[in-house]
Design brief:
Elements lengths: L1 E2 L2 E3 L10 E5 L5 E10 L3 E4 L2 E2 L7 E9 L2 E3 L2 E3 L2 E11 L2 E6 L5 E2 L3 E10 L9 E5 L5 E6 L12 E8 L5 E10 L4 E4 L25 E10 L4 E9 L10 E4 L2 E4 L5 E6 L2 E8 L6 E7 L3 E7 L7 H5 L1
Parallel strand pairs: 12-19, 20-26
Antiparallel strand pairs: 1-6, 2-5, 3-4, 3-7, 4-5, 7-10, 8-9, 10-18, 11-13, 13-16, 14-15, 14-17, 17-19, 20-23, 21-22, 21-24, 24-25
Length: 309
């Protein structure tokens, strides 16, 4: 944690060169710094860093300026208490690349990311996925390097098996992390030196438990192939990247404007939407393989002239 000390005397004295010591709750010296500035009334130190305790909790420490009776310096012993609270690092989890649907018993994978509020590097950290009954489904170690494009999001790709029962299943992932001390009230502390690979080391420092939830939607085995051809209504050219949704199934069209979804037989409402286009909707009963042509009309914004004409 970053501190700064001030010492004043009556009458005012120049105490530059005197050391202000920081004593912890056990009376041990936790750090110290010389008084380096004097404005004619008050002596001040530069900002200095003291390592906070590794155990979360409330603390009261003591700042001490010892008595000085040397030539050119005469001052009495002075001390002041200060209090602060040490908190554990918060741990955040994120789950992505979860498939929109899976068949019963089907193998699938998800990506799980873990980030410490102080950007600690993982040291033996793991993630565990549990189902709605609390049964562990898989455990995986976190990567040694952050996910590309992030500063300290370490991740794991976890292989899983879907339940046999159809429906939406609420699963949970927990991070088993090391320890770490987070913020001290009044400002962020300097607690750990960075390790050689970059980012603070996390060994033996407490972290909060990270938890995240995600859904696994189990659907019947598909029986029909639904093909969608997205076309620009005016130019009659394919629309790439249009979103095709037949709840709970969804996908995107390719460069040909084509999207394919395998679905069970039944009644569906189809939506096709693309950037700059009005959404297309079609209701129908799928009983066999079918192709639907979705002609998308441009959503033209009105100009000021159109509005006031």
């Amino acid at each position: 944690m970053t501190l700064k000390g001030e010492v004043s005397c009556s009458p005012a004295r120049d105490l530059r060169g005197q050391t202000v010591q920081i004593m912890d709750q056990d009376g041990a010296v936790a750090g110290g710094v010389e008084l380096s500035e004097f404005d004619g009334e008050t002596n001040e130190t530069q900002e200095f860093v003291v390592k906070a305790p590794a155990t979360p909790g409330a603390y009261t420490w003591l700042a001490v300026c010892p008595a000085c009776e040397t030539e050119g310096c005469s001052s009495e012993y002075a001390a002041a208490q200060f209090s602060f609270t040490v908190k554990a690092h918060s741990t955040r989890l994120v789950v992505w690349d979860v498939p929109s649907t899976v068949e019963g018993g089907e193998k699938f994978s998800v990506k799980i990311g873990v980030k410490c509020s102080s950007e600690c590097r993982p040291d033996g950290w793991t993630v565990e996925v549990s189902d709605q009954d609390g049964k562990a489904r898989a455990t995986a170690p976190l990567s040694d390097e952050p996910s590309p494009g992030t500063s300290a999001l370490y991740f794991a790709e976890v292989d899983l098996s879907a339940p046999d029962e159809e429906g939406l299943h609420a699963w949970e992932v927990r991070a088993s992390v090391g320890s770490g001390v987070d913020d001290v009230e009044g400002g962020p502390p300097e607690i750990l030196a960075d390790d050689a690979a970059g980012g603070p080391a996390a060994t033996d420092l407490p972290h909060t438990e990270g938890i995240a939830a995600f859904g696994v939607r189990v659907v019947p085995q598909p029986e029909c192939l639904l093909t969608v051809l997205a076309i620009d209504m005016e130019s009659q050219t394919p629309v790439e990247g249009a979103k095709v949704v037949v709840h709970p199934y969804n996908t995107l069209t390719d460069e040909r404007g084509v999207a394919e979804l395998r679905v069970p037989k039944g009644e569906y409402r189809l939506f096709v939407s693309g950037k700059r286009y009005f959404p297309f909707r079609s209701d129908g009963d799928v009983k066999a393989d079918v192709t639907i042509r979705a002609e998308l009309a441009l959503d033209l914004e009105l100009s000021d002239a159109d509005i006031w004409s």
